Amino acid sequence: QLRLVESGGGLVQPGGSLRLSCTASGFTLNTYTIGWFRQAPGKEREGVSCIRRSGGTTNYADSVKGRFTISRDNAKNTVYLQMNSLKPEDTAVYYCAAAQMPWTPIACLDRKIYPYWGQGTQVTVSS
Predict the structure, then answer these.
(1) Residue 85, SS3?
(2) 116-51-73-78 Cα dihedral, nearest 10 degrees
(3) How far apart (Å, rounded) are the C-alpha atoms in residues 8 and 19?
(4) Angle, CA 109 vertex, CA 104 and CA 113 arms, to 5°
């Protein structure tokens, strides 16, 4: 059974950092494109970052470029989202998702192409 589990969320002050983890079971994560998404109360779920299933090609939403970094650890079957310089507007539930798809940088931030999702982890940025 294919399963994704996010962890690493929490409460952090503005300007702080968190590292989210997305760990897979039941499949090999590096054979899938992995996306990170977030959903704030009253807003639609939006793409934050994604990483291609092979190699290191990545993409980021404009709102997080230069602050967030996505990476893989294939030995741990885990994808990470390092979040630095956090802002209150980054507050949301963060989800990881997996898809087997032809890579396009724009499509990988589209939630509609992902069939597999984790349960989410809350990130709150507040003083």
Answers:
(1) coil
(2) -20
(3) 6
(4) 80
pLDDT(25) > 70:
yes
The two tokens of residue 21 are 């983890």
Q: Which amino acid type is present at position 18?
A: L
The neighbouring-strand residues paired with 20 are 81
- Residues with Cβ within 8 Å of 63's Cβ and at least 6 positions away in sequence, in order, are 89
User: How is residue 47 written in tokens?
Assistant: 């793409």
- Report residue 77's pLDDT band, with 50, 70 and 90 as the boundaries: very high
The mean pLDDT of the chain is 95
Please give the structure tokens belonging to residue 63: 């709102």
Burial class of 89 by CB neighbour count within 10 A (0 to 12, 13 to 18, 19+): exposed
Of the given ranges (27-31, 38-42, 51-55), which has the lowest mean pLDDT?
Answer: 51-55
φ/ψ of 94, rounded to 5, equals -105, 135
Residues in the chain: 127
